[in-house]
Amino acid sequence: MTWEETIQMIRTKPEYEDLVRLAYFEAELPLNVTRFQKSDEFKETLKIISQFHPKAETILDIGSGNGISAVSFALEGYNVTAVEPDSSNTVGAGAIRELKAHYKLDSLQIFESLAEDIDFPDSSFDIVYIRQAMHHAHDLECFLKESVRVLKPGGLLLTIRDHVIYNQKDKEWFLENHPLQKFYQGENAFTTIEYRSAIQKAGATIIKELKYFDNVINYFPLNCDDLEKLKYEFDLKQRTRFNRKAGFLSKMPFTYEFYKLLFRKPSSLGLDETKVPGRMYSYIALKK
Ligand SMILES: C[S@@+](CC[C@H](N)C(=O)[O-])C[C@H]1O[C@@H](n2cnc3c(N)ncnc32)[C@H](O)[C@@H]1O
Questions:
Q1: N or C: which end of the chain has fewer CB within 10 A?
Q2: Is 39 in the pocket of ligand 1 (CB under 6 A)?
Q3: Whose CA is nearest to atom 18 of ligand 1?
Q4: What's the predicted TM-score (pTM) here?
Q5: What is the pLDDT of residue 225?
Q6: Which domain holds residue 260?
Q7: 36 and 154 within one domain
């Protein structure tokens, strides 16, 4: 099955209703844009842009899919170029063209190409934004080399929500657990060493590596309140277990707090990314 056929199929299956909505795959294309514009992820992305490149005017969106981000940036007033190798009207360039017409966006240009083959002149864009596409690279180093080549010096490279694996076994675990991999076989992921090295070799300096639980950009559809709830529930379980084991000691003030301080690893706050298959990371980098 192709990616397009997979999305068309899951749209008809009630068990995939949440996934279709949360991954912005609904057939009514403008609805996906409206929901993405209002998302915590997009708000955080705009914050990052205003922090690291407040004067940016032009954005190249690589691997734009059905255009949620390219259109949202254009609606924010940026001059946007979308690059997408898939021509389909469901999840590719055809869908972006439909949205461009719907919103009457002269400030959005659309090209059908792989990142590895883009032929824009050097130093063309203020920002290169890549959402959930870098991990699909056929050649990660070439993908990044081209993405950074077309950035202006000092320009901002934002790679968003890419799957991270720790090793081959972890990759197999991720692929087994990916809800759509069994249909289209197109998933992939790299290690952080591979991402970092490809970004740096391409000529960009990494300013921040956002790990899975560092930012809602990665852990969406969870939000900050969900994380606090997870931490609270985990702590409650730990405290009950501690009280049982510590017996009378647990009655003394602050014993549990001391125990936490001395013996609990950060991952044991209940937010343990190793338990999330193919957890996603994002990178903020600037071209030298
Ligand atoms: C998971 S989708 C993400 C789409 C969109 N950025 C989004 O976040 O909704 C990955 C996209 O990357 C595109 N893609 C795959 N390999 C690519 C490559 N080598 N260069 C550019 N885009 C690629 C796919 O066609 C697909 O549209």
A1: C
A2: no
A3: 114
A4: 0.91
A5: 82
A6: 224-269
A7: yes
